Amino acid sequence: MTSGLGNLSVRQRALVDRWLPGATVERDHSWGLVETTVLELAHAGSRFIVKAGGNDDAHIERELHAHRHWLHPWTSRGRAPSLVHGSADVKVLVTRYLPGELVLGSKHADYPGTYRQAGELLALLHAQTVVVDDDYERRENERALARFGEPHRIAAATVERLRAEIASWPTPPATLVPTHGDWQPRNWLACDGVIGVIDFGRAGMRPAATDFARLAAQEFRRDPSLEAAFVDGYGADPRETGAWHRNRCREAIGTAVWAYRVGDEGFEAQGHRMIAEALASREA
Questions:
Q1: pTM above the 0.85 mark?
Q2: 240 & 123 share domain
Protein backbone atom coordinates (compact mmCIF):
# COMPACT_ATOMS: atom_id res chain seq x y z
CA MET A 1 0.00 0.00 0.00
CA THR A 2 1.32 3.46 -0.92
CA SER A 3 2.34 5.10 2.38
CA GLY A 4 1.83 8.64 3.67
CA LEU A 5 -1.43 9.41 1.85
CA GLY A 6 -3.55 9.95 4.96
CA ASN A 7 -4.88 13.33 3.79
CA LEU A 8 -6.44 11.78 0.70
CA SER A 9 -9.90 10.24 0.57
CA VAL A 10 -10.32 6.47 0.42
CA ARG A 11 -11.07 6.63 -3.32
CA GLN A 12 -8.12 8.91 -3.97
CA ARG A 13 -5.73 6.67 -2.06
CA ALA A 14 -7.00 3.62 -3.94
CA LEU A 15 -6.38 5.29 -7.31
CA VAL A 16 -2.92 6.53 -6.39
CA ASP A 17 -2.04 3.06 -5.09
CA ARG A 18 -3.19 1.56 -8.37
CA TRP A 19 -1.26 4.10 -10.43
CA LEU A 20 1.92 4.16 -8.30
CA PRO A 21 1.93 0.96 -6.21
CA GLY A 22 4.28 1.10 -3.26
CA ALA A 23 5.19 4.75 -3.76
CA THR A 24 6.47 6.69 -0.76
CA VAL A 25 5.77 10.30 0.15
CA GLU A 26 8.96 12.36 0.08
CA ARG A 27 7.50 15.78 0.87
CA ASP A 28 4.20 17.55 1.50
CA HIS A 29 3.93 20.69 -0.65
CA SER A 30 0.36 21.54 0.41
CA TRP A 31 -0.29 25.23 0.90
CA GLY A 32 -2.49 24.77 3.97
CA LEU A 33 -5.03 27.54 3.33
CA VAL A 34 -7.14 25.53 0.89
CA GLU A 35 -8.33 21.93 0.78
CA THR A 36 -5.97 20.84 -2.00
CA THR A 37 -3.31 18.30 -0.97
CA VAL A 38 -0.02 18.33 -2.91
CA LEU A 39 2.45 15.51 -2.28
CA GLU A 40 5.81 14.61 -3.80
CA LEU A 41 6.12 10.83 -4.23
CA ALA A 42 8.96 8.51 -5.16
CA HIS A 43 8.15 5.46 -7.28
CA ALA A 44 10.36 3.09 -9.28
CA GLY A 45 13.27 5.51 -9.26
CA SER A 46 11.25 8.53 -10.42
CA ARG A 47 9.50 11.38 -8.67
CA PHE A 48 5.89 12.46 -9.12
CA ILE A 49 3.48 15.04 -7.77
CA VAL A 50 0.03 13.99 -6.57
CA LYS A 51 -2.64 16.68 -6.29
CA ALA A 52 -5.97 15.88 -4.66
CA GLY A 53 -8.96 18.11 -3.99
CA GLY A 54 -11.54 18.09 -1.23
CA ASN A 55 -15.30 17.63 -1.61
CA ASP A 56 -15.93 21.20 -2.84
CA ASP A 57 -12.84 21.42 -5.03
CA ALA A 58 -13.18 22.73 -8.58
CA HIS A 59 -9.45 23.14 -9.26
CA ILE A 60 -8.56 19.57 -10.19
CA GLU A 61 -11.01 19.47 -13.08
CA ARG A 62 -9.65 22.78 -14.43
CA GLU A 63 -6.10 21.55 -14.02
CA LEU A 64 -6.83 18.33 -15.89
CA HIS A 65 -8.45 20.31 -18.71
CA ALA A 66 -5.38 22.53 -18.95
CA HIS A 67 -3.03 19.54 -19.06
CA ARG A 68 -5.04 17.84 -21.77
CA HIS A 69 -5.68 20.85 -23.99
CA TRP A 70 -3.31 23.79 -23.34
CA LEU A 71 0.03 22.83 -21.81
CA HIS A 72 1.80 21.22 -24.78
CA PRO A 73 3.74 24.41 -25.68
CA TRP A 74 5.29 24.20 -22.20
CA THR A 75 5.54 20.44 -21.59
CA SER A 76 7.15 19.92 -25.00
CA ARG A 77 9.91 22.29 -23.87
CA GLY A 78 10.23 20.77 -20.41
CA ARG A 79 8.83 23.94 -18.85
CA ALA A 80 5.79 22.41 -17.13
CA PRO A 81 5.08 19.01 -15.53
CA SER A 82 3.53 16.40 -17.78
CA LEU A 83 0.32 14.61 -16.80
CA VAL A 84 0.65 10.90 -16.01
CA HIS A 85 -2.75 10.00 -14.53
CA GLY A 86 -5.89 11.87 -13.58
CA SER A 87 -9.51 11.54 -12.56
CA ALA A 88 -11.87 14.52 -12.50
CA ASP A 89 -14.51 12.39 -10.78
CA VAL A 90 -12.23 11.40 -7.88
CA LYS A 91 -10.48 14.81 -7.95
CA VAL A 92 -6.93 13.54 -8.10
CA LEU A 93 -4.09 13.72 -10.61
CA VAL A 94 -0.47 12.66 -10.94
CA THR A 95 2.21 14.56 -12.84
CA ARG A 96 5.91 14.01 -13.29
CA TYR A 97 7.99 16.04 -10.86
CA LEU A 98 9.36 19.27 -12.36
CA PRO A 99 12.70 20.11 -10.72
CA GLY A 100 13.50 23.62 -9.60
CA GLU A 101 13.44 26.18 -6.83
CA LEU A 102 10.27 28.15 -6.20
CA VAL A 103 10.88 31.66 -7.54
CA LEU A 104 8.86 33.31 -4.78
CA GLY A 105 11.20 34.24 -1.94
CA SER A 106 14.33 33.37 -3.92
CA LYS A 107 16.97 35.52 -5.61
CA HIS A 108 15.25 34.78 -8.94
CA ALA A 109 12.26 36.89 -7.88
CA ASP A 110 14.37 40.04 -8.39
CA TYR A 111 15.92 39.15 -11.77
CA PRO A 112 14.43 40.86 -14.84
CA GLY A 113 15.47 37.78 -16.83
CA THR A 114 13.04 35.69 -14.80
CA TYR A 115 10.18 37.93 -15.87
CA ARG A 116 11.31 38.05 -19.49
CA GLN A 117 11.13 34.25 -19.58
CA ALA A 118 7.76 34.31 -17.80
CA GLY A 119 6.45 36.72 -20.43
CA GLU A 120 7.69 34.47 -23.23
CA LEU A 121 6.05 31.43 -21.66
CA LEU A 122 2.76 33.24 -21.16
CA ALA A 123 2.71 34.36 -24.79
CA LEU A 124 2.99 30.71 -25.86
CA LEU A 125 -0.03 29.79 -23.76
CA HIS A 126 -2.16 32.70 -24.93
CA ALA A 127 -1.36 32.21 -28.62
CA GLN A 128 -3.03 28.82 -28.92
CA THR A 129 -6.66 29.79 -29.46
CA VAL A 130 -8.90 32.85 -29.40
CA VAL A 131 -12.66 33.14 -28.93
CA VAL A 132 -14.95 36.16 -28.67
CA ASP A 133 -17.45 36.05 -25.80
CA ASP A 134 -20.29 38.58 -25.88
CA ASP A 135 -21.31 37.78 -22.31
CA TYR A 136 -17.99 37.60 -20.46
CA GLU A 137 -18.04 41.13 -19.02
CA ARG A 138 -21.61 40.82 -17.76
CA ARG A 139 -20.87 37.49 -16.07
CA GLU A 140 -17.75 38.82 -14.41
CA ASN A 141 -19.60 41.89 -13.14
CA GLU A 142 -22.28 39.68 -11.63
CA ARG A 143 -19.63 37.53 -9.94
CA ALA A 144 -17.99 40.61 -8.47
CA LEU A 145 -21.29 41.90 -7.14
CA ALA A 146 -22.10 38.49 -5.67
CA ARG A 147 -18.86 38.66 -3.67
CA PHE A 148 -20.37 41.38 -1.54
CA GLY A 149 -22.89 38.84 -0.28
CA GLU A 150 -20.08 36.77 1.22
CA PRO A 151 -18.39 37.58 4.56
CA HIS A 152 -15.78 40.31 4.13
CA ARG A 153 -14.31 43.43 5.74
CA ILE A 154 -14.66 45.90 2.89
CA ALA A 155 -16.06 49.15 4.29
CA ALA A 156 -19.76 49.76 3.55
CA ALA A 157 -19.03 53.09 1.82
CA THR A 158 -16.46 51.39 -0.40
CA VAL A 159 -18.93 48.63 -1.26
CA GLU A 160 -21.50 51.20 -2.34
CA ARG A 161 -18.90 53.02 -4.42
CA LEU A 162 -17.85 49.79 -6.10
CA ARG A 163 -21.47 48.84 -6.77
CA ALA A 164 -22.01 52.19 -8.48
CA GLU A 165 -18.79 51.75 -10.45
CA ILE A 166 -19.78 48.31 -11.69
CA ALA A 167 -23.30 49.47 -12.61
CA SER A 168 -21.77 52.18 -14.83
CA TRP A 169 -19.51 49.89 -16.81
CA PRO A 170 -20.11 48.92 -20.44
CA THR A 171 -20.20 45.21 -21.29
CA PRO A 172 -18.49 44.94 -24.69
CA PRO A 173 -17.55 41.60 -26.29
CA ALA A 174 -14.35 40.18 -24.80
CA THR A 175 -11.57 38.32 -26.57
CA LEU A 176 -10.63 35.24 -24.56
CA VAL A 177 -7.52 33.04 -24.63
CA PRO A 178 -6.27 30.15 -22.47
CA THR A 179 -4.99 31.72 -19.24
CA HIS A 180 -3.12 30.39 -16.22
CA GLY A 181 -5.23 32.36 -13.76
CA ASP A 182 -2.55 32.77 -11.05
CA TRP A 183 0.48 33.97 -12.98
CA GLN A 184 3.08 35.01 -10.41
CA PRO A 185 6.39 33.84 -8.86
CA ARG A 186 4.55 31.55 -6.44
CA ASN A 187 3.82 29.31 -9.44
CA TRP A 188 7.17 29.54 -11.22
CA LEU A 189 10.22 27.31 -10.70
CA ALA A 190 13.83 28.19 -11.52
CA CYS A 191 16.20 25.38 -12.51
CA ASP A 192 19.68 26.36 -13.73
CA GLY A 193 18.33 29.73 -14.81
CA VAL A 194 15.40 28.26 -16.76
CA ILE A 195 11.87 29.12 -15.64
CA GLY A 196 9.12 26.50 -15.45
CA VAL A 197 5.45 26.68 -14.53
CA ILE A 198 3.26 24.80 -12.04
CA ASP A 199 -0.29 24.88 -10.62
CA PHE A 200 -3.04 25.07 -13.22
CA GLY A 201 -6.05 24.91 -10.92
CA ARG A 202 -7.28 28.34 -11.99
CA ALA A 203 -6.71 27.85 -15.71
CA GLY A 204 -9.54 29.06 -17.92
CA MET A 205 -10.57 31.11 -20.94
CA ARG A 206 -10.20 34.80 -20.07
CA PRO A 207 -8.84 38.03 -21.58
CA ALA A 208 -5.05 37.89 -21.90
CA ALA A 209 -4.58 40.90 -19.61
CA THR A 210 -6.05 39.02 -16.64
CA ASP A 211 -2.77 37.09 -16.38
CA PHE A 212 -1.00 40.41 -15.74
CA ALA A 213 -3.15 41.19 -12.68
CA ARG A 214 -1.27 39.40 -9.88
CA LEU A 215 2.08 40.73 -11.08
CA ALA A 216 0.75 44.28 -11.43
CA ALA A 217 -0.48 44.23 -7.82
CA GLN A 218 2.80 42.85 -6.47
CA GLU A 219 6.09 42.57 -8.38
CA PHE A 220 5.53 45.30 -10.99
CA ARG A 221 4.54 47.68 -8.23
CA ARG A 222 7.84 47.30 -6.37
CA ASP A 223 10.15 47.25 -9.40
CA PRO A 224 9.14 48.71 -12.81
CA SER A 225 12.14 47.00 -14.46
CA LEU A 226 10.46 43.65 -13.85
CA GLU A 227 7.34 44.87 -15.66
CA ALA A 228 9.41 46.13 -18.60
CA ALA A 229 11.19 42.78 -18.89
CA PHE A 230 7.92 40.85 -18.67
CA VAL A 231 6.22 42.92 -21.38
CA ASP A 232 9.34 42.61 -23.54
CA GLY A 233 9.19 38.84 -23.21
CA TYR A 234 5.47 38.72 -23.86
CA GLY A 235 5.87 40.88 -26.97
CA ALA A 236 3.10 43.45 -26.39
CA ASP A 237 0.95 44.89 -23.62
CA PRO A 238 -2.68 43.70 -23.79
CA ARG A 239 -3.91 45.98 -20.98
CA GLU A 240 -6.47 48.19 -22.70
CA THR A 241 -7.39 51.02 -20.31
CA GLY A 242 -11.12 50.45 -19.78
CA ALA A 243 -11.03 46.66 -19.61
CA TRP A 244 -7.92 46.76 -17.41
CA HIS A 245 -9.63 49.05 -14.89
CA ARG A 246 -12.66 46.78 -14.74
CA ASN A 247 -10.46 43.73 -14.22
CA ARG A 248 -8.40 45.48 -11.53
CA CYS A 249 -11.56 46.27 -9.55
CA ARG A 250 -12.95 42.76 -9.87
CA GLU A 251 -9.60 41.20 -8.98
CA ALA A 252 -9.28 43.45 -5.93
CA ILE A 253 -12.74 42.55 -4.65
CA GLY A 254 -12.10 38.85 -5.14
CA THR A 255 -8.75 39.06 -3.36
CA ALA A 256 -10.13 40.85 -0.30
CA VAL A 257 -13.13 38.54 0.06
CA TRP A 258 -11.30 35.25 -0.59
CA ALA A 259 -8.40 36.12 1.71
CA TYR A 260 -10.80 36.97 4.52
CA ARG A 261 -12.60 33.65 4.05
CA VAL A 262 -9.39 31.60 4.34
CA GLY A 263 -7.88 33.75 7.09
CA ASP A 264 -4.90 35.13 5.16
CA GLU A 265 -4.67 38.60 6.71
CA GLY A 266 -1.64 39.67 4.68
CA PHE A 267 -3.31 38.83 1.40
CA GLU A 268 -6.54 40.42 2.62
CA ALA A 269 -4.64 43.66 3.29
CA GLN A 270 -3.28 43.46 -0.24
CA GLY A 271 -6.84 43.13 -1.53
CA HIS A 272 -7.93 46.26 0.32
CA ARG A 273 -4.91 48.13 -1.06
CA MET A 274 -5.78 46.91 -4.55
CA ILE A 275 -9.32 48.25 -4.15
CA ALA A 276 -8.06 51.66 -3.03
CA GLU A 277 -5.54 51.88 -5.86
CA ALA A 278 -8.05 50.78 -8.50
CA LEU A 279 -10.55 53.39 -7.37
CA ALA A 280 -7.85 56.07 -7.18
CA SER A 281 -6.71 55.28 -10.71
CA ARG A 282 -10.24 55.97 -11.91
CA GLU A 283 -10.06 59.46 -10.43
CA ALA A 284 -6.63 60.26 -11.88
A1: yes
A2: yes
